[in-house]
Each structure stands twice: as structure tokens, then as C-alpha cells.
């Protein structure tokens, strides 16, 4: 029996329409074809295998490397009334055998398995006794050594094709670069499958980059203005900084928890659990946090330190706003971050070729930070996509950056680098340009230089911005073998000789005498009517109660967007409630009356 995909979409998931290429992908797989799906985080990959698994006879087998994610997905599916289970190393023997029994009995719609489990001879024999609807290989980039999450077991998945020739195979990933894509197709023997590549744009995420002045004060202002009561992630480079920042945010009245690889395993698990199950936890973390976090309502991702590359930045910021509602990617950065990352990369034992690649990636990142263009255009360009128009939802679009003829400023800065011997960092160089009276200036007699005190046209912050841009433009480089001093490159000579003009950006935050017209913050759900807002909060309260009672995250019951639609339309009967996005049959039966009671109580009150 093949069920109709559209019917499953509306009855089980409570969704009206397919998104993007979902329908084509689902038809391909329901029809027995193989496919590779490249879609950004939050694009809706899971439906692409969940619906075919429900439409085709037998059990859908989902191979996933991440235990936390498996459990989350299984819980979400159970809430929808789907028979789902997971098999992984966290289960005891008894539970695992029960799951296997259910599988063989044909009682499961979907089973999630870790690759090493799937590949055991015993489990493969078991599968041969079952009817299998499809194999879904999630996080398929794990098969590639190019990627960041290489898992050797993924390489052994290719024989599935020969062993189960009738079963369609579907590989899915949010990593889109060319080498990784080719690797997936060849390593998994998917070359005959269709490739579905979606745009990697995440239009609901607003990108902002701020020059670092006082990062804590900047972060606090951002959180207070836009994210009181929201869940989010703050990324820092080091464990120590994670701890300090979490403590400081707690003192500032936020619910902030630390997460890094140096913490006890139990503490990490507990913090992650709170992040998922409470509504407004700020996770302060190193990059150890995030893989396999499927929380849809992360409202912001903030970077207090530069990520390693644009790939890393895009992956980390991509954890915001999976639910499609407004979300923020916010970063503050300074020259000292760049120096630190260069030093780390240089000091590593990696071969020269790799160091060269790392340097290029850092340069691309710096170019992104210092751009005067739409940030989304720069990002998509980097990933090989073109966005024809500026997006209107990033800082450079919202507060257009003006540029100015920076040739003279560049000449002053470059000659100051040269005359001080190419060994000093930006702080001292700016002191010299501004005619400061510091111990260091006196020690090196820099007050006697021709560049001493010639920088009065700009303030300290503006000079910092100018030096950052000179590095971004490749006129100056950071001496990583020494103490991070600035040196001229060969590109600097034509500028010093007056043969090349330099256009510089005037940072909005440093622009003199100009009001700081920050773009208006957007609420993820906007209510015109205060009564709707109050109802929304009451519905969230009920959701949290129901979630706590079952020990599950609130979002597996309903997403914020579903509650917002309830608050706006105020259905009074079950039949009306069922028309709301995200309410399928199972949830209607399970929760409908409870939510109606809250709506009707407010109506009466
Ligand atoms: P991905 O795995 O690609 O990161 P998900 O499968 O988790 O994305 O989907 C992201 C969000 O979009 C989920 O909250 C999901 O319920 C929702 N979603 C997916 N497809 C649809 C659809 N056709 N209509 C409405 N919501 C959808
Ligand atoms: Zn833009």
C-alpha cells in the first residue's frame, strides 16, 4: 500500500504545503529512486525521508551519527503518532532487543541507527528479514574526509546498495561544497541518484558584525535590546573565556550555562538538557557545542571571537532560527582576534599546504567582516551562489556603510608601520599617530618620528578600523613569528608612492557625529493586539507544563509559530484547531482540548 504524500503531510504533520523541492524529492524516493539532498539547516530535510517512509510499505532506516539528535527526532515523531525508535550505544541490552523485535515484527515506521550498529553482521542479517522502505543517510558529509566531521564507518555504507538492491537510498546534508558533494556520490555509490540542491540562503537570519570596542558591553546591549527571554548561543574561542562569560551573564540576570570539552561529561549533558528543555537558556560555548543540536527556536547566535573560517561561521550561525522565524547572527571582532587565530594556525604542527589554506580561509573571513557589500551576498558568493539583489536583512543593508578616499590615511598608517620598524601592533602605532605620551613612545623615542602626531583627523576607534582594513586589503600583514606586530607587504609600496588609491569603509559605530541609527529589532512573532500576545504567553506556559510532565523539550509539542497562529486566530473548536499549521491528527487528539481550554478561558476572562 502506498499512501499519498500530501495526505501524510497534512494528517500526520499538520502542514499545508510542501516547501521548496520537498515534493519532488519525496516523489522520487517513493517511486524507488536514489537521491542526494543538499539543503541548508532548517530547510526541511527530515520530511524528505520521513514521508516516504510512511508512504512506502515497511520500515524506514535512518542512519545518523548523533545520538542526541536521534532521540530528539524519535521523540518528535512519537508526538506525531508515528511508530519510531532508535538503536544506539546508549540503550541497555533489554531495550535494544525490544526495539529489534518490534523491527522484525514490522511494527516500526522508522528506525534510527548509528552507523557502527547498522554495520554489525547480526544487524544486517536482521534487516534482511524485514521489509525496508528506504535507507536515509543523514549528515552524509560525514563520509568525506574533506569535511569537518569525517566518520570512517560512513565509508562502509556503500555495500548497502548491493545487499539491498531494491531499497531506495537517500543521502542528506547541509554541507554543500563541491569536493564533499562528489565524495558523497562516489563513496556511497549514489552516482545514479538524482541530486537536489537547494539555495543555501537563510533569509530569516539577520547578519551583523560589530568592531570590537567593549565586547561585554556590546553583547549586553544587544541581548537586552533584542533577546530578553530568548534561547541563544554565545561562542567563545577558549574554555576560560566560556566560563568567565557564562558567570558574567548570570550575574547580569540571564540564565547562562557553560559548555566546552573540558567540562565533566555529566555537567555537559545536564547543561545541554536544560538548553533544550527550558525556554530561555543562553549557552556560552566553544565549538564543541552545536553538532546535533536540533533545537528549532534558537533565536540568536553571537560570536565574541572570530570563527576559523566562513564555513565554520555559516555552520555555527545556521543553528539560529531553524523554525524559520526571525533570528540574529551577531558578531564582534577585532584585529587581536585575527592575530590570535593566525598564531594558533602557525604554531600548529600542520603541514605548510594546510597552513596556506587556513590563511586563505581567514582572509576570506576578514573580507566578509570588512565588506561594504550586503553580507548575505558575500556569504552566498563564497559558497558559489549568486544573490541578485542586496538582502535588506543584514547590517550593511540596514545601515548602509559609507566609504571614503582613504589613500592619505592609509599612507600615514603604512609609513608609521615602516618608520617604527615593522614590529609593533596597532595599539602602539595608533598612539604614535595620535601623538600620545606613553612609556613605550619615550623608550623608543618615537616622538621624534615624522609620523608622530600626524593622525589627528581620526579618533582611536577609526584608526583601529583603518588598520583592520589595511590587513584585510593585504597591504599589511601580521607577523606571527614575532609578537604579532604589523609588517608591510609588497602591495603597500604603490600606495605609499601615491600610485594606488584606497577606498575605506567608515564603520557606522565609529562614524563621527552621526547618530547611531540601529535598525529596529524584530520580534520573532509580532502581535498587533496585546491580548493576542498575552494569549501566546499563556499557551507557552501550558506547553512548558505539558513538556515538563513528559520530560521532553517544549518544541516537540508545538513550535512557537503554531502557538502564535493559535493566539492570532483563537479557534474555539477542535475542527478549527486542526486547520493550524503544525497540528496533525495525533496532536489534535492529544493536546487539542487542553489548548482550547486556555484559549476559551482568556476569551471568557
Ligand atoms: P533540517 O533537517 O533541514 O535542518 P528540519 O527537517 O528540521 O530541517 O525542518 C526545519 C523546520 O521546518 C522544522 O521545524 C519542520 O517542522 C519545518 N518544516 C519542514 N517542512 C515543512 C513544511 N512543508 N511546512 C511547514 N513546516 C515545515
Ligand atoms: Zn544584506
CATH topology of the largest domain: Rossmann fold
| Helix-strand category | alpha/beta
The poorly predicted ranges are 511-517
* CATH C-level category of the largest domain: Alpha Beta
Q: What's the CATH H-level homologous superfamily of the largest domain?
A: P-loop containing nucleotide triphosphate hydrolases
Strand order of the largest sheet: 3-4-2-5-6-1-7
Q: N-to-C terminal Cα separation, in Å?
A: 49 Å
CATH architecture of the largest domain: 3-Layer(aba) Sandwich
Average of the residue pLDDT scores: 91
Q: Helical percent range?
A: 40-55%
Number of strands: 17
The largest sheet is:
7 strands, parallel
Overall description:
There is one protein chain. The chain is of the alpha/beta class. It has four domains: 2-197, P-loop containing nucleotide triphosphate hydrolases (Rossmann fold), CATH 3.40.50; 205-398, 3-Layer(aba) Sandwich (Rossmann fold), CATH 3.40.50; 402-506, Arc Repressor Mutant, subunit A; 530-604, DNA polymerase, domain 1, CATH 1.10.150.80. 44% of the residues lie in helices and 13% in strands. The strands form four sheets. It has a seven-stranded parallel beta sheet with strand order 3-4-2-5-6-1-7, sandwiched between helices. Strands 8-13-12-9-11-10 form a six-stranded parallel beta sheet, sandwiched between helices. A two-stranded antiparallel sheet has the order 14-17. Strand 15 (476-478) and strand 16 form a beta hairpin. Helix 23 crosses helix 24 and helix 23 (530-550) crosses helix 26 (585-604). The longest helix is centred in the C-terminal third of the chain and has 21 residues, at 530-550. The chain is globular, with a radius of gyration of 27 Å.
Amino acid at each position: 500500500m502506498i499512501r499519498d504524500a500530501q495526505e501524510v503531510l497534512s494528517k500526520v504533520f499538520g502542514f499545508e504545503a510542501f516547501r521548496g523541492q520537498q515534493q519532488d524529492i519525496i516523489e522520487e524516493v517513493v517511486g524507488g529512486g536514489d537521491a542526494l539532498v543538499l539543503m541548508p539547516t532548517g530547510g526541511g530535510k527530515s520530511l524528505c525521508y520521513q514521508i516516504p517512509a510512511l508512504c512506502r510499505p515497511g520500515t524506514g532506516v535512518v542512519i545518523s551519527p548523533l545520538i542526541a539528535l536521534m532521540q530528539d527526532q524519535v521523540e518528535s515523531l512519537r508526538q506525531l503518532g508515528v511508530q519510531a525508535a532508535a538503536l544506539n550505544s546508549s540503550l541497555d541490552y533489554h531495550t535494544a532487543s525490544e526495539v529489534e523485535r518490534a523491527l522484525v515484527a514490522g511494527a516500526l515506521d522508522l528506525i534510527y541507527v548509528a552507523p557502527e550498529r547498522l554495520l554489525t553482521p547480526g544487524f544486517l542479517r536482521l534487516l534482511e528479514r524485514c521489509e525496508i522502505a528506504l535507507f536515509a543517510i543523514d549528515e552524509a558529509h560525514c563520509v568525506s574526509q574533506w569535511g569537518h566531521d569525517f566518520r570512517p564507518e560512513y565509508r562502509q555504507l556503500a555495500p548497502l546498495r548491493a545487499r539491498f538492491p531494491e531499497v531506495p537510498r537517500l543521502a542528506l546534508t547541509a554541507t554543500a561544497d563541491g569536493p564533499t558533494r562528489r565524495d558523497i556520490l562516489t563513496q556511497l555509490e549514489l552516482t545514479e541518484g538524482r541530486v537536489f540542491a537547494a539555495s543555501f540562503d537563510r533569509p530569516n537570519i539577520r547578519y551583523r558584525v560589530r568592531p570590537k570596542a567593549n565586547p561585554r558591553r556590546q553583547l549586553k546591549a544587544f541581548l537586552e535590546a533584542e533577546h530578553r527571554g530568548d534561547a541563544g548561543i554565545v561562542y567563545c574561542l577558549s574554555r576560560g573565556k566560556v566560563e568567565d562569560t557564562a558567570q558574567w551573564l548570570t550575574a547580569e540576570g540571564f540564565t547562562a550555562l557553560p559548555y566546552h570539552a573540558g567540562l565533566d561529561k555529566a555537567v555537559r549533558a545536564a547543561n545541554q538538557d536544560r538548553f533544550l528543555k527550558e525556554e530561555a537558556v543562553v549557552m556560552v560555548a566553544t565549538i564543541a557545542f552545536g553538532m546535533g543540536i536540533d533545537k528549532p527556536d534558537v533565536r540568536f547566535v553571537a560570536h565574541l571571537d572570530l570563527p576559523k573560517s566562513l564555513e565554520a561561521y555559516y555552520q555555527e550561525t545556521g543553528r539560529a532560527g531553524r523554525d524559520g522565524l526571525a533570528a540574529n547572527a551577531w558578531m564582534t571582532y577585532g584585529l587581536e582576534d585575527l592575530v590570535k587565530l593566525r598564531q594558533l594556525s602557525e604554531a600548529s604542527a600542520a603541514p605548510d599546504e594546510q597552513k596556506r589554506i587556513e590563511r586563505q580561509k581567514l582572509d576570506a573571513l576578514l573580507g566578509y567582516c570588512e565588506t561594504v557589500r550586503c553580507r548575505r551576498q558575500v556569504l552566498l558568493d563564497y559558497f558559489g551562489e549568486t544573490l541578485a539583489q542586496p538582502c535588506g536583512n543584514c547590517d550593511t543593508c540596514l545601515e548602509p556603510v559609507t566609504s571614503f578616499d582613504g589613500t592619505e590615511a592609509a599612507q600615514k598608517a603604512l609609513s608609521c608601520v615602516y618608520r617604527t620598524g615593522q614590529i609593533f601592533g596597532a595599539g602602539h602605532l595608533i598612539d604614535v599617530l595620535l601623538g600620545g605620551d606613553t612609556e613605550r613612545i619615550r623608550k623608543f623615542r618615537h616622538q621624534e618620528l615624522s609620523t608622530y602626531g600626524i593622525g589627528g583627523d581620526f579618533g582611536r576607534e577609526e584608526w583601529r578600523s583603518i588598520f583592520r582594513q589595511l590587513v584585510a586589503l593585504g597591504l599589511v600583514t601580521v607577523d606571527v613569528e614575532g609578537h604579532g606586530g604589523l609588517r608591510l607587504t609588497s602591495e603597500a609600496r604603490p600606495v605609499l608612492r601615491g600610485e594606488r588609491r584606497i577606498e575605506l569603509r567608515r564603520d557606522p559605530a565609529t562614524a563621527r557625529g552621526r547618530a547611531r541609527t540601529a535598525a529596529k529589532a524584530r520580534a520573532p512573532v509580532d502581535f498587533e493586539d496585546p491580548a493576542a500576545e498575552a494569549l501566546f504567553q499563556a499557551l507557552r506556559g501550558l506547553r512548558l507544563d505539558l513538556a515538563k510532565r513528559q520530560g521532553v523539550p517544549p518544541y516537540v509539542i508545538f513550535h512557537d509559530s503554531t502557538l502564535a497562529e493559535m493566539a492570532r486566530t483563537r479557534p474555539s473548536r477542535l475542527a478549527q484547531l486542526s486547520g493550524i499549521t503544525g497540528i496533525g491528527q495525533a496532536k489534535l487528539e492529544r493536546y487539542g482540548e487542553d489548548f482550547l481550554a486556555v484559549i476559551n478561558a482568556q476569551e471568557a476572562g
